[in-house]
Each structure stands twice: as structure tokens, then as C-alpha cells.
Design a protein that fits this description.
274 residues, alpha/beta, Helicase, Ruva Protein, domain 3, 2 domains, seven-stranded mixed β-sheet, 9 strands, 36% helix, elongated
Length: 274
């Protein structure tokens, strides 16, 4: 059997008795054309390594294999493993499935140099993104991120200052990567259909500013946006050296966190790191 011989995904799901588990944050994506579009977002994948989290019954996995990729997939729901095994048989030597929790995987050892492409389970998506963005080594072990999120989360990743969506996630994403919304995804594309819209975000590494570390920036943004309605002089008073950094940089301490640009957060973090 080849990939072209595989039955429709709905048939695979029915044959294996699969259903999306709310406790695992699952929503199955069945639209083959849409899945192919997502697989094209990172660029040509022929012969490239792709790391996928939460493949479920393998819809996106099938599209990635169809694009010529070699796929390493991590799935914690063992009910999906037989369907994924059939995919592996249709693409010999190009699919490795690992049963386990993605948050506990040594990704660098497993998939260094891979594109990460995933319809992320809703309940771990943000945690995984922050982990991938916060890697100490830069450029990172991954080549690009192509990730499905709830639309609200996607908008927070690409948000600009002085907007309602702008916050910690935007700063952590944008200080050393280029992030964009690659395509919107209507909720009707999923089974079961979620109550919210979704979007695919594409992120590629950029040059890291000198003198800044993820640890310092995470602490700074955590304090600043943890009390986002308060002035900086209040929200940052518990972070040693932060108020002095504001004074040194000439940043008005009566401003609120959402008014600061990514560059201003980087400047404060650089001052704190000295």
C-alpha cells in the first residue's frame, strides 16, 4: 500500500473507533486540501525532517509524508497508534511514531534540525510554544514552527504594542523570531467542531539581540504583564533592578506594560542582565 492507496481519513477514524478526547485537547482535522496547505507553509519538505506533536489519527502526518518529509511524531493517545502504524507502512522508513508526553521528550536528541509542524492539542499548545521559544541555544534546534492555535492565541503571538492582544507571548515570540499568521482555519474544519476559530502561525528564527537571555526576558515579561493594568513602577517593583533600569533608559515608570515595544523590553532585559 502507498499513500495514494490510503482510504479517506473519516474511514480510518471509523474503522479504528476513534473519537476526539476533550481531556487530551483533541480536535481532528479532516479536510485533505487544508492539511496539504498547512504542510506547504514551512516551504519545500522533500527529504526534510519534520517533528509533529499530537498527530492523532494522522491527517496532517499524511499531508507531511505526501510532501516528501521524514516525520517523527509524538502521540500520547495509544488509541491512535494503529492508524499511525498504517501510515508508516504506506511510507516505509519515513515515519517514526513515539508514544509519550511531548513535554517530557528530549527534542534536541530526537529531532534536532527539524521543522516543527503540528495541530497542537489545545491544553498544551502554549506551554510547548513557550518552551520552543525559550531555548537557550540560538539559533534553536528547530528550523521553523508551523503551529495550529486557537485564533485568540495566534493573535496574541503576532500582536503589536498598544493592542488588546499584546502581552507576554508577543514579546517572547517576537524578540528573536519573525512570526506571522499563515492562514485562518474555520472551526467547521474540525471534528468535533470547537466553539472557537483557529489559525496557523508560522515562526522562523531571527538574529538574537546581544546581551539578552530568555531567562531574564521571561522574568521581566512575567512581572510586567502579571499586573498589566498597573503602572510599571508597581508591576516591576518586585523585580530587582527593574526600576533602576527604567530610569537609566529614560522609560516613564507611569506607563503600562502593553505600551512598551518589544525593543524596549529587550533594552530593559539587557540592562538587568549586566
Amino acid at each position: 500500500m502507498t499513500l495514494a492507496d490510503l482510504p479517506p481519513l473519516r474511514e480510518v477514524i471509523a474503522r479504528h473507533g476513534l473519537s476526539a478526547e476533550k481531556s487530551l485537547g483533541q480536535n481532528f482535522l479532516l479536510d485533505g486540501q487544508l492539511l496539504d496547505r498547512i504542510a506547504r507553509v514551512p516551504g519545500p519538505l522533500d527529504g526534510a525532517l519534520v517533528y509533529e506533536v499530537g498527530p492523532g489519527p494522522g491527517g496532517l502526518t499524511r499531508a507531511l509524508l505526501g510532501a516528501g518529509a521524514e516525520v517523527i511524531a509524538v502521540e500520547r493517545d495509544r488509541r491512535c497508534l494503529p492508524a499511525l502504524a498504517e501510515l508508516g507502512e504506506a511510507a516505509p522508513g519515513r515515519l517514526r511514531v513515539i508514544e509519550g508526553d511531548a513535554l517530557a521528550i528530549d527534542e534536541l536528541a530526537l529531532a534536532g534540525g527539524a521543522h516543527i509542524v503540528a495541530n497542537l492539542p489545545y491544553n498544551v499548545g502554549t506551554a510547548l510554544l513557550v518552551r520552543w521559544l525559550g531555548t537557550t541555544a540560538w539559533p534553536p534546534w528547530w528550523r521553523s514552527l508551523t503551529l495550529m492555535f486557537q485564533k485568540e492565541v495566534a493573535e496574541r503571538i503576532v500582536a503589536r504594542p498598544d493592542t488588546g492582544a499584546y502581552g507576554r507571548l508577543a514579546v517572547l515570540a517576537q524578540w528573536r523570531t519573525h512570526a506571522r499568521i499563515a492562514l485562518p482555519v474555520h472551526r467547521s474544519a474540525f471534528v468535533p467542531s470547537p466553539k472557537v476559530m483557529s489559525a496557523v502561525v508560522h515562526i522562523v528564527p531571527a538574529e538574537q539581540p546581544d546581551g539578552v537571555t530568555p531567562k531574564v526576558l521571561e522574568a521581566l515579561t512575567g512581572a510586567a504583564f502579571g499586573q498589566r493594568r498597573k503602572m510599571l513602577r508597581q508591576s516591576l517593583k518586585g523585580l530587582p533592578g527593574a526600576l533602576g533600569a527604567l530610569a537609566e533608559l529614560g522609560i516613564d515608570p507611569t506607563r503600562r506594560a502593553e505600551t512598551l515595544s518589544v525593543e524596549e523590553f529587550v533594552a530593559i532585559a539587557r540592562t538587568l542582565a549586566r
